[in-house]
Amino acid sequence: MDLSIVFQGRAEDLNTESVCLIRKVFPDAYVVLSSWEGTIEKKYRGMFDLVVENQDPGPDFPDIANKNVPDNFKRQRVSTLNGMNKCDSTWMLKLRTDVRLTSSISKITELADIIIESKYQLKFCVSTAGSVDPKKFPILLHFSDLIQFGLKDELIRLWRSAYIPLDVETRFSTIKRKFFFSLSGMRTVRTACEQRLWLGRAVHPHLFHYDSLNYHYIDLHNSFLTMIYFFDTSKYGIILPPRVYQESKSAPCFYQQGVQNIVKKRSLLFFKMNPVLAVRYFKSWSSVLYLILKMTKEEK
Predict the structure, then answer these.
(1) 118: helix, coil or strand?
(2) Is 143's pLDDT higher than 60?
C-alpha cells in the first residue's frame, strides 16, 4: 500500500517502541514526525524519513473560566498540516506522538477497503474514541481528531478547511455564556478543537459554543454520521494515553461500534434531560455565582 504515517505532537511524548513497530509492520511506509522547533532530540531523527520542525504559533487564546489553560487548536492544526503536506502518498494514517501501538496496527490497512467499497461519502475514517455521542452528552459535531486514516488529499482538505474562531474570551463573555448557552456545565473556550474541524464544512458556521444546540446543527451532525466511518482504535492496535481515553473502559460519552447506523430524527428530544445533566446545570449556575462574587470582591 502507498502509505504515509504522520506522528503529530510533542516530541517529548513520543513512544519510540511504537515508531519501531510501525517500521517493522510497514517497512515501505513514509514515516514523518511533525513537532516543534528546538524540542526534537537527536536520537529521534534517525527513526523517521522526515522530521518537520514547526515554529510554535502559540495558543489561540486562554480559557479564562478554566484556569487560563491555553486553547491549542492552532498548534494542532499547524503541526498536523505541515506534516501531511510533506507526504506524497495515496493513503495516510494520522497519529498522535503519545499513542502506544500493538501488532494489531497491521490491520489498519483493512480500513482502506471499507472506505472505498462503502457508501460513505468522505473517504477517510475517524476513531470512536474522542467522538462524542450526543445521546449521552449534549455536544454536536465532536468527531475525533485523535486518530484518522484515509485518502491523504481528503484528510488535508479536512484540516485545511477548519473553522478558526476570531473571538477572544473575556470574563464577561464567560459569564454570559454560562447563563445563556451552557447545557453541560463544561467551561471550555468557545468550540472544541474537534468541532472546528467539521464546522469548516458548514456553509455558515454559527456554532460558537461547545454545547450550543439548534435544529440546523442537529441536522448537520446527523448528515455527517451518514458520511463517515468510525473505527474502534483497540481493534487496530492503537492505545491512547490514559488522560485522553481510559484503556480499561470506554468513556461513557464516546461513540461505540455501529455508530454509523445511528441517525436520529430531527428533534430536540434528542437531548432528554436526565439526572446527570441536572447536576451539570447546578454546577454551571453555581460557578456563575462564584465568578460574580469573586469579581465583586476584587472590585472592592
Answers:
(1) coil
(2) yes
Residues 215-254 pLDDT 10s: 677 778 888 888 889 998 889 999 888 766 554 345 556 6
Between CA 111 and CA 10 the distance in angstroms is 27
The whole-angstrom separation of Cα 217 and Cα 223 is 9
Can you count the helices (H) and strands (E) in the chain? 9, 11
Count of Cβ atoms closer than 10 Å to residue 171 Cβ: 13
Please give the grid coordinates belonging to residue 119.
Answer: 457508501
Alpha carbons 168 and 210: distance in angstroms, whole number: 15
Q: Report which of 10, 158, 142 is spatially closest to residue 76, judged by C-alpha positions.
A: 10
**What pLDDT, on a 0 to 100 scale, did the predictor assign at position 186?**
45
Residue 200's domain comprises 3-299
| Three-class DSSP category at 139 | coil
User: Does residue 181 surpass a pLDDT of 50?
Assistant: no
Q: pTM, whole model, 2 decimals?
A: 0.78
DSSP string over 245-259: S-SSS--TTB--TTG
The answer to whether 131 and 259 have CB atoms below 8 angstroms apart is yes
- What is the predicted pLDDT for the residue at 267? 37
